[in-house]
Design a protein that fits this description.
The chain has about 350 residues and is α/β, with parallel strands linked by helices. Helices cover about 40% and strands about 20% of the residues. It is built from 15 helices and 13 strands. The relative contact order is 0.11. The protein binds adenosine-5'-triphosphate and magnesium ion.
């Protein structure tokens, strides 16, 4: 998606260093006995399950990292480690530079109330409270007055387009509407970091697409740092700045969507990307070639950020290579019709690797 992540902001909001979450088999004792060494095979032989296996990555301010993988691959466990809903077996996690695992209960409550927001698959609305009261509730827990909290809740209702339903009870709302209340409730406290675990998975495809649009609109305005879990690759491609693909607790690849599709790091990632329509993912800048003979190029031009699908017909109708331009209208490469044909009709990434 064409959104600038603050790359110059080198201080990551979330940083994981070799994070492990190991279930069962007396994992902690086994690791202690081995002087802190984590030998996967020994632990697995002892009956341990690796929910998260050696995860290291950073998430920057305003970035949306989508975590995806099949059921049981460790997505929720990773999220639970970073929100400290579960204890991490080994490794380090930093939130805004602060050591999360060293925080005491008081710091943790502060962090959860003021910095982190969570939306889980089960909406967990309070059945005897109205839409407005449900959204205002966490604010009141924070000590905001009833009047102010209701005022803020009313603004959140507008934000998720539920105006007119303020006084409905959850049972009077559709699943998608309840989900929006859940999102509004977590947004009301203005978290900097937002954890969403398969928030749209219970929705039918049409509502789901609507919610994704709504979510992108909100993120466009609010620019949160987001960890979003899904097992739907299309959803990941629509939403992500970067995608992390997990398998058996291991992050197989963490990369920009186009790179995941163009240069899958493992067989497993390649399998995930096989059916992805490349023209919907790749941008002109991802597949352009170096400028050869500048006298033989077309008069038209395309932006490096344009999705291939949107320029394919025009480039195919143009016999000469088409200049690809950056934000300052400078030519930074060319797009050939043969590249477009390759993207449209070939499943393999051969011949479409980026020049840069
Ligand atoms: N409390 C637990 N005790 C033992 N094993 C667990 C526990 N929680 C999770 N696991 C195991 O850790 C692995 C990862 O589980 P997790 O819930 O993170 O998967 P997931 O990727 O979120 O799957 P899904 O898409 O089905 O939600 C699974 O093998 C699971 O059985
Ligand atoms: Mg899960």
């Amino acid at each position: 998606m064409p959104r600038d992540v603050a790359k110059e902001d080198t201080h990551p909001v979330i940083r994981c260093d070799s994070v492990y979450k190991i279930f069962g088999g007396n994992a902690e004792k086994n690791i202690r006995d081995a002087d802190g060494a984590i030998d996967v095979k020994t632990l697995q032989d002892a009956g341990c399950i690796f929910g998260v296996n050696d995860a290291s990555f950073e998430v920057h301010r305003g970035e949306m990292l989508v975590v995806m993988g099949l059921s049981g691959s460790g997505k929720s466990t990773l999220l639970r480690c970073i929100s400290r809903l579960t204890d991490t077996t080994a490794g380090k996690i930093f939130i805004d530079g602060e050591d999360l695992l060293a925080m005491n209960a008081k710091d943790l409550i502060e962090l959860r109330r003021n910095k982190m927001g969570m939306v889980f698959q089960s909406f967990a609305l309070l059945p005897h409270k109205t839409v407005l009261e449900n959204i205002a509730f966490p604010l009141q827990m924070k000590g905001v007055s009833t009047q102010d909290s209701i005022k803020r809740a009313a603004a959140m209702v507008e934000l998720v387009s539920l105006g007119g339903r303020e006084n409905y009870f959850p049972r009077q709302l559709s699943g998608g509407q309840q989900q929006r209340v859940g999102i509004a409730r977590s947004l009301a406290v203005e978290p900097d970091i937002w954890f969403l675990d398969e928030p749209f998975s219970a929705l039918d495809p049409l509502i789901r697409k609507e919610m994704q649009d709504e979510f992108l609109r909100l993120q466009g305005m609010l620019n949160k740092t987001i960890l979003f879990v899904t097992h739907d690759f299309d959803e990941a491609l629509r939403l992500a700045d970067r995608i992390a693909i997990m398998k058996d607790g291991i992050i197989e690849q963490i990369d920009a969507p186009a790179n995941i599709v163009l240069n899958p790091a493992t067989e497993y990632v390649a399998k995930f990307t096989n059916d992805v329509p490349r023209e919907k993912v790749l941008k002109c800048g991802d597949v352009m070639e170096e400028v050869g003979d500048p006298s033989g190029i077309s008069d038209m031009s395309v932006s490096k950020d344009a999705i291939i699908e949107s320029v394919a017909e025009a480039v195919l109708n143009e016999p000469k290579p088409v200049p690809v331009t950056n934000g300052n209208d400078e030519m930074i490469g060319v797009l050939n019709s043969k590249t477009i044909i390759h993207i449209l009709f070939s499943k393999s990434s051969a011949g479409t690797s980026p020049v840069a």
